[in-house]
Write a structure and sequence with these properties.
Elements: H1 3-12, H2 18-64, H3 66-70, H4 76-112, H5 127-149, H6 153-171, H7 177-190, H8 192-206, H9 217-220, H10 226-236
Helix pairs in contact: 1-7, 2-4, 2-10, 4-5, 4-6, 5-6, 5-7, 6-7, 6-8
Length: about 240
Amino acid sequence: MMFTNLSERIRQSAPVEFGTVFNNSVELFKKVWIQGFLTLVLTFVGILPFYILVYLPMIVMGISDPDSLENNELPPVFVGLMVLVMSMFIMGIMTVVICLNAAFLRICRKYDLNESGKDDYFFYFKRAYIIKALILSLIITGLSILGFLACGLGLIYLVVPMSLFPAFFAFEKELSAMEIVKAGFALGNKNWLMIFLLVIVAGLVSQLGAILCLVGVLFTAMFSKIPFYYIYKDAIGISMDV
C-alpha cells in the first residue's frame, strides 16, 4: 500500500474501541497461546548470541591481562571495543525482536482468518526485511534516547506509536522504515489514550502467568502483542499479500 493511501486510511479510520479490541484479543489468544510461547522461546534463543558477544571482550581481556580487570584499569582500546559491542548488542536484539514480533502478528492473522499454511516464525528473517528491521531498530533507539532525555516522560508518550511499528512492518511490505515510523505516529496519536490503556491492561494480563510459579508467564507474555494486530486490522484492514 502506498504511504499516501495508508495515511488517508488512518485519517478516516474509526476510533479504537477498547472493549472490542480486548475481547477479540482474548479470543484469539486462546488459539495462538502455544505460538506465542514458541515465539518467546525463539526470541530468547535469538538474542543469546548477542549476550555472548557482550561478554566476549571481557573474557578475552581477563585471559590476556587479568591484572587490568582487578585494578579497574581498562585500556582505551578495550573501552572503545565495548562501546562498539554494546551498540551491536542493542541493534541485534532489537532487530531479532522486531522480526519475531512481526512473525507472531502474521501468525495471528492466519488463525484469525482461518488461513492455511505453516506457522513461519522466520518469515521476516529475509534480507530485505532484516535490513528494514535494522534501520527501524536504529530509529527506535534514537527515539528512546530522546524520550529518556525528556525526563522519561517522552518514553510514556512514545510507547504507543512504537508499539505499532511491528504491525506496520509485518503487513506493509512496501513501506520504508521511516514511513513505518510515520504511520505508527499517525495511528498512535489519533488513538493515543485508548491504545495506552490497552498497553497497560494487556501488559498486566500478560503477567498473570507469573501466578503459576513464574513459569506460566512464558505462555501468557505474548498476549500483550495481540491487541496491536486488531488495532491495525480495524484501522487499516489486513492485506493478504504478506
